[in-house]
Queue: 4 jobs
Job 1
Amino acid sequence: MLPPPILAHHPERETTGDSMADYDWVIRGGTIADGTGGDLIEGDVAIAAGRIAAIGQVSGRGAEEIDARGKVVTPGFIDVHTHYDGQCIWAEELSPSSSHGVTTAVMGNCGVGFAPCRREDHAMLINVMEGVEDIPDVVMTEGLPWDWETFPEYLDTVAAGKRDIDVAAYLPHSPLRVYAMGERGAAREVATEDDLALMRRLTAEAMRAGAIGFATSRLSIHKTADGNAIPTFDTDIAELEAITRGMADAGAGTFQVVLDAFVGWDKEYPVIERVIAASGRPATFTLASGNDGPPRWRRVLEMLERTNAGGGVANAQVMPRPIGLIAGLELTVHPFVLCPSWQKIAHLSIPEQVAAMRDPAMRAALLSEDFTPGHPFNELARNWRWLFPLDNPPDYAPPAHMSMAGQAAARGCTPQEVAYDRLLETEGRGLFLAALGNYENASLESAHEMLRHPHCVPGLGDGGAHYGAICDASYSTYLLTQFVKGDGSLQLGLAEAVHMLGQKAARAVGLDDRGTLKVGGRADCNVIDLDGLTLHLPEVVRDLPAGGRRLHQRATGYEATFVAGAMIRRFDEATGARPGQLVRGAGYRAAA
């Protein structure tokens, strides 16, 4: 027997249709996973005035109703690692994220972004964002008004826009450093005491304006578009301590960092310990397993436990599937992109490129040439042991024998030949998955173990960036289809998975007012046909400013998504509603 509904009275509300209705919406008869990880219940969810008005057996009528029998009702998901800093300005739909149940996206990760910024530094920040996040120069030049200088002014620009879902923003380190230090900051010179004092003051100002934290990157393969180290690479830890003390001054904010995996997560983790000790602020960082070598990630989990047991707060963001790239002729990288002979045909259309590749002389050249120097991301598309075909439906956990190296061994040829033939057989449209991490021993066991750890949350979707190489913003759908619907030992319960995507993720970045379904709480929610939930092959669309191309990935099975009580998607299509707002952090509320 279900308990009676928990009701919240809203006498001031206006319904969306029937003036005699009790609620704006009633979602009837669904399986409710409330985001807390508690037991599932069968019942109704009523929405009024943007809030959850009742949960249980709701006898009152909704101005509009959804039959959710056989469906799952969840809170909106929280994507803690995106780069919608530009897309949230030039576009009203934050896709792919909003098409995968996400209702709040956190941007400004990895320390890259567009503010604070003086006019003379625009080109430098574009160069950093193009190199680190694979956003073409022309997209940012034409798509952004650049009508801000300070970070508070940038937040005001974001707040003034219309979009489908909510966004929250970190203060990014690269723009902050260059703003405070000028060319010395871009050249990675050591900050002076005056520089540190200024960055600390600007950080406190940003927190009070609504930033949810401060973000940086120490990853060595994060390069500018011209191949140089980004301004924050290998920054002295004393600089990070000084900046995060600005968060302490404001009494708010989370420290987000991408550690250098090539040094070793465990060797880099003391950076987090020092920053937490200096600032007292919580930290979040990216964690993955290597495909080969010792499982250092387990050592990091032990360090996480030590930090949290000792009074600090830290959590790791874990991608629920292999970390890597998507490669193809129409994309940023592919297995032959840095071969000298490729430059002769790089300007051609794909059909023309394929015709040229059928020429025996071109084939011989491309199969024998070594790569010329280039951006390190390009070389990742020739890691033959971990390069797999990606078809429809996409398999993100393919068996080892399907790699280019595995197929080559079976055929008695080179991996280059296997990749080359795939491109010809698919008329140049075939895609590859470069599974470069989180696929230890060609298995998702490490990802599964990390996801279930109390101090880990799903993340690293990177929506709004890597437009021509990564399309991982669909990870919420993948988590549900692979780990909840899947069988075998790598299984998650529905309530557990929704908790990861909801409340657990929200709390990791200080967004405690969302990620759950509760009476009086925000009406951010999904109605999902879990049985029919399907993830489709990424596709190239050309909807960026200046006609730029990007990877997009659709899902079917999201019957409805609500943000603040407004339905933004119905049956996997956008409704045109734009209720999304800027979520300002706790420092803003304290200052107000």
Job 2
Amino acid sequence: MTLFRLLLICLILLVASLTATTLLLFVRGSQAYLVEQLASHGQDTATSFGLSLSPVLAKGDWVLAESMVDAIFDRGDYASLELVGRDNRLARQITASPETAPDWFRQWIDLKVPIRETEINAGWQLVATLRVEVNPEPALVHLYRISLNALLVALVVAAVAISTGAWGLRWILAPLKSAQAQAEALRRRSFLRQQKLPWVLELKALTLTMNRMVENSELQYRQQCKRMRQLQQNCFIDGETGLGNGIRGRDRLDNLLKDREVEQGVVVQVHLSGLEGLERSRGVAAQQPLMVGITELLRQQLARFPLGRLYRMGQADFWALLPGIELQDWLPQGAELEQSLCQRLQQAGATRAMVASEAFVFGGEVAEVEQRLHQQLQRLLAGEPGPVTTVVPSDQAAQSQRLDAMLAHPPRLMAHQVIDREARTLYYEVLTRFHDGKQWRTPGAVVVLAQRLERQVEVDLLVLETLLSQLREAPVAQTLALNLTTASLLSQHFISRLREAGREAATLGAVLAVEIPEQAALEYRDGCRHFVTLMQQEGIPVWLDHVTPAGLAELESLPVEGIKLDPAYSRHMNQEGSYESLLPLMVTAAHARSVLVVAEQVEEHSVAERLHDFQVDGLQGFAFSGPVAFSELPTGDR
């Protein structure tokens, strides 16, 4: 119950009690007054009428006396008249009144008037006794009418008082409503302030406190984001190009090699030759615009691989990490990239660029991949062909056929548990496996292939429909999170189907949630914000996946339920002076926005304990449990 309703009920009870008390006092007061007036009227009648009858009865004329009694009684003001003499007796009693009050009112209001009597004397001799009883019915009818009018007036006044009081309560409690809106806005990661202060001292103090809390929360969030950017810049960013440096590149490759959801990929190393001659001829300053241009060219060439990441590993070396890509699919782009880089370098006065490409698979080691890249570059520098020339590049038709084969059948669904600090289930992340006709494949290769063919929405729709189909067969009373591609976030068709699916899942007892990539929030801010707002209206929680400090800054305008940290913060947390320093800042900044923080790929219990020390809200990884088939979810969740 809201405070307004509670106070309104109290106001109604107060007005009702005052109205009832006032009305009761009015009726009872009128009753006492009427009884007193009727008794006085009866006594006056008995006295005056007795004096009128005295000379008549003195002569013994009872006939005339009877006429006088009838004349008085016929007026209807008296319930009974009785004249008793020595030998004669006259009695008149009313049988029924022409107008009476309701029975319930007669029972509640009793206008019983005592009988009044007087003695009639002839000289010093008593000749008769006169008893008069006043008829209370006209007075009772009159009292009923004025009471009914008083009740109607009291109800109108009470209604006006309650309406005015309700309006006054709304006006007085408006600052509380604004404070509630401020708290809700904080939960949605926005900062509202009340510009107009209320005149009630207590509410004014509350408003000032809420404004200060909002200011402190905003200041804390901005300070944490600033410190994170500075720390990231110092530890992981190359100052000349703005790319991740060698530390970040090797850590990223290590994550990919240990990520069970990344089956394979390609590492591309770009080596620039002839920079020494450029430096001697044009000076050190000539290298900076060249590196900026090379970086931009690499970004443009790799833009067709949305999951790819670019790093500067040294003065003349760059890495491109392309998870989910098969080597034969990369080779045409590699040759095109090498040709474009050579043209740019020759225009700038350098010699040439060499592109070495090596495939990697789950379970490998960073040192082995780096060594193979180094050996390939040595052969290229010596003019020998690299081993990748033996690989036959695939064309778009072959790639489309491979994707069709993997989308021909519903994927196999698995669920990976995310637990909170008390080991309770926060939600299950839905993982997929696609069959290519020979073996089950992780979604990395499928998603990358679909992105290159611009068919990502088909993949997400297939997974969504498969999940709904399995929920219909075996409902699960749990929150289930789907990973979405960037294209699906911007597809109106997919958004409409996702909203329908969310409502259908709710009828089956489940809560549908989604995880969206950080890259989407960075590249398509408006579209991503629109998507999250729509999902929030449907009650579908949204989590931001693989979050780094760059993505965390987007929380200011992105009202997500929580974030999943980049796996590097779990795998390399013990690396001195890097991730361990960033992690508490990221958690604090997220909590300042009331955003939950989950660390994924937690493989060791010691790492989990340290993450708990940093106040991480949830954990996911093989340290606790691995993915299970969707049909094998615990029965307690069904």
Job 3
Amino acid sequence: MMDILRQNAQSWGIKIAFGIIIAVFIFAFGAGGFNGNTDPVIAYVNDQPIPTQEFMQAYRDNAEALRAQNPDLDSDQLQSPEFKKYVLEQMVSQKLLEAEAQKLGLSVSNNELSYSISLIPAFSDKDGKFDMNLYQSFLKSRSMSAATFEDNMRNSALISKLQEYVTMPVKPTEADARNLFDTASEKVQIDYYNIPSIDFAKDIKISDKEIEDFYKANPDKFTIPARSVVKYIAFTPEELSINESVTPEEIKAYYEAHKDSFQQEDQIKARHILIAVDEHGSDKDVAAAEKKIKKILAKAKSGQDFGKLAEKYSEGPSNSKGGELGWFGRGAMVKPFEEAAFALKKGDVSNPVRTRFGWHLIKVEDIRKAGQKELDQVKDEITTIIAQEKAADSITDKLDHAIDLLASGMKLDKVSEELEIAFKKSEKATVQNLSRAFGMTESAAQTIIGLPKGSSTDMPIAIDGGYILVEKEEDIPPTLSPLKDQKQDIESFLIQQRAIQFAKVKAMSVLGQLTNEKSAAEELKAIKKDLKTSEPFGRDGFVPGLGMNPKLAQAAFAAQKDQWLSEPFELPGGFIVARLDERIPPKEETWKTQKDAFMNAIFQQRANEVFSAFLTDLRSKAQVEYVRKDLLN
């Protein structure tokens, strides 16, 4: 295995990618996944074989494609029986469709195939013309012959022809498209009255008995799971770079070669003072917070130290650092804060700025203009990059050496000394902790947790950026966290839950008054000053300012103008009572510009339905025999 790694790992990026592919493949099928069964066929479709090797290649291709699209994808999902079955079922469907196309006399000529390949953007030069060199480089990078690629393309084109043939009768009308457009583009806006749960929280008292009863009734919530302490050597560019030396000449050469990578956007260094107020807080609360921030502004303008004022008055998490925010560029802060901060000069203090977090004062301490970063600014960054690139080239050699030393009977701590790589100790960790901390699969983390105390892994475990060798030091059994450590959290949780219940009861009461003919006018008068109108929103359920709530959107679209919706709706922090304010039909000129797109959308939807039904019928008549079900487990 180490020889293979050494031969293929020519760069850090390739090493890591190769490690992922190997890890996925080994953990998916297992070293003993064949169980002595050497049948070369995984399944038969109407007596047509699907070779096991062909399935394995399709599985790897799909796994790599998904990983490329989503680097954060959980490896366990790619290793799941469901994913493997999905890949096999796609291959079964492909076999059925290819056979049906041939039965109907459909074919793809060489000219059609050549034309299809010439249209692939990856094979086109800067002028958009087909480039044979690019085509051959693509095949070489995937270790694929032109014949194999062209067979795959021909089969894909054949299935596309079959799909066109089957869906030929689909003819959507303009009326169908207009109905879809009207439904998709219509918007509504609502009037709503907010009942925040926080208004009730301050008056709620939770007894010690209630806290104790909750604690006893929910032991699973307070049980600390079994954990382990492990010691390990990490073979990653970051870890091994510590022993790499980088010369000033190398740093300068890298800087000159990568100047475009060291551009700087406008940045400012600032402090702030926050007086928190809920985004949906009452006018009274907002005004009280504004009054407080203005008093602090007066102190700042009188010459008092801004940092000390932040330590004393700010209600933000940076108060302990005097409101220090460090350097930041555009897009790092919420829009009102950003606009106010970047409008200031060095040394200026802003007027009060309102964001969803509350009222802020901002002081700009320094400014960096956009442009090229100087070498001194990025020297440390470049040193790290070069050191890690050098270290990446030594990973496989050092890992190979470490495995040889372990095989000779040397303990892991001595291997660490021999290779001059740090021997580190983890915190008390669960399977999930290890998986997240190192970027390994949960099955790999489970292997580590399952090690007997004092023993080591025989083979390296793949992690983000490299590998680790692990030794189990300690096992800690599950324990129940003491009530005294959980008391405050339980109390806060119970207060929050009860406050939400009170807010719901209040919302139901208000709605009841508003929908009662006798009390409606009086209740509306009582809440009118606090009644807000939302921005227009569509059927997707996203209500600007209120968040995602499909149920609220559905009720609003079903209501008549000025009709109160039939129930209160829970939102983060409370409940709202709402009525339909206005329906906003789509504009005629918008329909004219989008008609073709909606006609095509209707066609695609119905064509997919027809083709899906066609495929379902083929599957119902087909004889499919799964020979190697063990490969899906």
Job 4
Amino acid sequence: MTYDVIVIGSGIAGLMAAIEAKSEHNSVAIITKSNIFKSNSSVASGGINAVLDENDEAEIQKHIDDTMKSSKDLGDSKAISYLCHQAPLIIKKLVKYGVAFDRDENGKILQRSFGGGSSKRTCFVGDSTGSAITQALIKKAKLVGVEFLVNHFVMDITKIEEYVSGVVALKKLDSTVTVYPAKAVVFAGGGYAGIYRGFSTNAQDCTGDLLSVALRAGLSLKDMEFVQFHPTGFAKTSYLVSEAARGEGGHLVNSDGERFVNELGTRDVLARAIFEQMRAGKKVYLDMRHIPKDVLETRIPSLYKSAYNQVGIDLSDELLEIKPVAHYSMGGIASSMTKSEIKGLFICGESAALGVHGANRLGGNSLLEGAVFGELAGKKARKYAFNKEFLPIDYNVVIKNMNLVQRIFDGDCSKNFNAMRISVGKIMFDKAGIFRNESSLQEAFDYMKYLRLESNTLHCIDKSKHNNVELISILELRNALELSEAIILCAMQRKESRGAHFREDFAFTSKEGNRHVLIKELQKGFFKVHYEESGLTKWLKKILT
């Protein structure tokens, strides 16, 4: 099958992109690794930021200022201004699509406080906002005629010179590699925080596969060192305790019963404060016992039920032990207002590094970014594909991936790839997590380099080609190891502390660090990592050449 536009990813960014890309005269498909309901967006619970009155410039400016402040001087002013000005329009569009935001007795959309925000601007649907939005968008996408290609693992893109021409994907059903020609492609496949397996709110398959695809296509990644650790996850299961819990008045207390931090501070500050308590041998708890039970059941129903079902805690009467967990990746594929260096390829959502979040994402801005820039990417993809011809497919890329799959099926293997995957998560959390230093980063890099070599010897024990989960797990592990090296190298390059990146050996913010770090894989296992040139340097080079 051929499509005018292919969107990879079925979260909010991907769904918005597909809806906007679709017209009466073109064909649009969404490719998703599993089923259409599984995405980080669908489990995002807290809410989506927006000033509801599009004419309230003062409040919109406060939203811009809060986002810039949270970015720690690495935010792109153009992208952030666009994000915040589009927010009221996006909420209206989501309501039109059927999202039933919580409202007061007068029918006005309710808004709650979120960490780092100077105003109450977070719209919500209980504590299941992401799920409510994705379900509404799925219905809308189907209504306008978007096709869904489910259970497809994207392995590469094909291109002719600097133009995208198609998507190479593995069909999980029968393990066959196929290519889908396309005039335009949108990457909206999510982030890479799932690499921190065992210490992440993300599903274990959130390994940033599209970022690996981008590296193999010759693109640069940006800001990979900035992984946001959400301050509050269940200590036992890593289940996300939404910021809504603190927005509704929840306290953070240590095992001595002391409140030790401003609960509505930014996530980087809270995560470090909590981890410091844990390193001092104390446990940390969420305390909501002072909040009426009916409020808990109404405002944070999913959390209330999950606390009881997963760990047997009644939040109205008991403390809930929590820990920081990897949650969101600010880094991604270097792009400007969704455009990449490959013509016809657009990037949005957590896959992208658009400069909206910088060094630290403001709570409530992730769903907004997905919706706003998903919409923009879809519009640009539709415009780009209009009246374009399909380009030739580079079948060398297809054959290379077919051979890779066959090699993984061939041969025997005594290594436990699941154990390797778990060890990746633990090493990344311990050595390249909330606190880092040169020694810990070097240890992590050496271990990832070793595992990356070992991953080349992995084979499926189960030789069946029907829904072979081992095959997908091995491919995900290979991608996770590639990105782990990129994360570590970027963290080593940034010899300072800024936002979500904290170096114990460089516990200060430097002027030199007021730039983005870029990384490109020149050939397998060999990276070029450097600070992005300043705007002045770029300008001087341009006029001198």
